[in-house]
Amino acid sequence: MILSEEYLQNLFDKAFPQIRSVAGCAVVLEGSIAEGFGNSSSDIDFLLIADGDAELPTMPSLLFVDGRRVEIRARSVRQVTEQFAAITAVGAGRPAEDLLNRCQRLLGSFPLRDPELVGRVKGLMSLNDFRAAVRDWWAHAARQSIRYALALRRLGQEREAAAWTEAGLLQAVKAWAADRGETYLEPKWLPLQLDRIGDDPLSARYRPLASLDVSGLGAAEYVSAGARLTADLGVSGAAPGSGRITVARAGEVTTWQTGERVHVVRGRQDVFVLGDRAARVWRSLVFGRTLEQALAAAGAAEAGPLIAQFLRFGLIRVAWRGEGPIVPGMPLAAPSGDVTPPPSTARPVVGVGGATAVGAEAVDLVPVPARRFSAAAMTLVWSNVVVENAREDLIGALDRGQWGVAQLSARRIVRFALRGLLSAYAVNPLPPDSEVVLRLSLLPAGPDVDGIRARAAHLETLTIGSTAQGAGALASLDDFVALVRGATGAGGFPSSFDSSDGWRRTLEIGYDWLRLGAHLDADLPIDEASDLLANGGAQPHAASA
Predict the structure, then answer these.
(1) Phi, psi values for residue 132, rounded to 5°
(2) Cβ atoms within 10 A of the Cβ of 449, count?
């Protein structure tokens, strides 16, 4: 060790009064210094072992003694016994990283107090069994990383594939080293572990392949070389070859189409909107097909990068034929998982035909939660239906000279058009109708919104008391509604109450959004909407329902 036993005993004597003592404890030094590694920046890690069955906290106490950072942990003999048993349990599966690390550090520790108790505790675990457990743990990680690298290379992501190959190679070498007694898990000490193992053809082959930059190879060639060395290091099941990797379904990922726009909902929380090309590639995917078949079916040069993007975002998985999903990871590093990109900055957030996608190859994250997104979209559609209904009321009132009714109908058109505008910007729940003009202040400034804001304030105070005023109001309101709909992607909204075809098209638009809203348990804009859902988008009393 780089520090003497005398120094360590003295350091512990100074640290011990700063902690709550546990009676009958053995003391060991664990970690990199106990393993024969470490340097001047390394922590001093003490572990107290209590001879009993107490339930001691796992969190360490961090102290600063004589200019050194000192960590002190404590475990009882019962806790150690249970942890070792969890490693060797038949059918327990792959042990958790922290469990394996805690057990390894104890087995590799240096006794400072009560070596008899330390020896008894270490004897609870067979060193050969533990070496095998560490070897298999690293080998599993290496297998998954190399498989993932092969998938990414097939999708044309060669630099990313090389990065996973680098990770997989390190994991494969750690598995190989564990089989030779080097079980310390922390990857940064691998060079010193290889030095301690001594000259070997396999470690000699690894050093020039430790990274893509060191190797001097192209990214695709580096992946091939890494896969070959991984196999030679004893990690099976990751050999390159066509037809081995398939496209697989990701859990809790669903597809929803509104008009021509495709949305993908992940985990009932995140909504991704796909551009036109991205949507075509997405629709072409068939789970269970090989990557080669998926690329051929997509039939487009951009398919590989788009499928890779779906994979990164957790919208699909890849699997090794006959063995289940490929789940790569970086042990003893930040947890890996599905990437969540920055939210889209496109505004408005949603239109009648779907969320706004920026570009044909977009796989954009909608900037609001899925439930709120669907609720806002349903309210947007319903607001446009009410605008159509209020316009019909206005025309009827003008025809009969009912100026008071006409004035109220005009105000209703303005307010529901603005409810649609606020909904398009994902304002949900909405403010009361009496405040919608004032609450336009919530929206970002811009030519469309500023123009609508000014005209809305004027139309709120319209007076209709004659045929001429009524005709002028109707023309102004029609222009206003067209302006709002143009700003919210609702320019093609049908005249809902002019014909059976217009009503049918309105129901189709509403039904698309109601299905998504019901899936996400979002609040429906009106109770009767549930009847439209129950009848598959048809009117409940129609003969075709």
Answers:
(1) -65, -40
(2) 18
CA distance 533 to 515: 7
A 10 A CB-CB count for 180 gives 16
Q: Please report the DSSP string for 280-297 in residue order.
A: HHHHH--TT-BHHHHHHH
CA-CA distance, 532 to 510, in Å (whole number)?
9
Q: Where are the beta strands (DSSP E) in 308-356?
A: 316-320, 324-325, 350-351, 354-355
Residues, the chain: 545
Backbone angles phi, psi at 73, to 5 degrees: -115, 165
Query: Containing H/E element for 516?
Result: helix 500-519
Give the separation between CA 460 and CA 48, rounded to whole angstroms. Answer: 76
Backbone angles phi, psi at 90, to 5 degrees: -70, 130
Please spell the DSSP secondary structure of 405-461, one letter per residue.
Answer: HHHHHHHHHHHHHHHHHHHHTT--SPPPGGGTTGGGGGSPP-HHHHHHHHHHHHHTT
Provide CB contacts within 8 A for 19, sequence distance 6+: 61, 63, 72
Name every residue whose Cβ is closer than 8 Å to that of residue 3 and which is 6 or more positions away in sequence: 33, 38, 44
Helix, strand counts (H, E) of the chain: 19, 14
Q: Residue 236 burial (CB < 10 Å; 0-12/13-18/19+)?
A: exposed
The DSSP 8-state label assigned to residue 189 in this structure reads G
Q: What does the CA dihedral 55, 58, 63, 69 come to, rounded to 10 degrees?
A: 140
Rg (CA), the chain: 33
Residue 516: exposed, middle, or buried by beta-carbon count in 10 A (0-12, 13-18, 19+)?
buried
Cα gap 319→25, rounded to integer Å:
49
SS (H, E, C) 364-387: EECCCCHHHHHHHHHHHHHHHHHH
The one-digit pLDDT tens for each residue of the chain (545 residues) are: 888 999 999 998 898 888 876 667 999 999 999 999 988 888 899 999 999 888 888 888 899 998 889 999 999 999 999 999 999 885 556 788 899 999 999 999 999 999 999 999 999 999 999 999 999 999 999 999 999 999 999 999 999 999 999 999 999 999 999 999 999 999 999 999 999 999 999 999 999 999 999 999 999 999 999 999 999 999 999 999 878 999 999 999 999 998 889 999 999 999 999 999 999 999 999 999 999 999 999 987 779 999 999 999 999 999 999 899 999 988 877 777 899 999 999 999 999 889 999 999 999 999 999 999 999 998 998 899 889 989 999 999 999 999 999 999 999 999 999 999 999 999 999 999 999 999 999 999 888 888 999 999 899 888 999 999 999 999 999 999 999 999 988 888 877 667 778 767 777 777 788 888 888 887 766 554 454 444 454 445 455 54
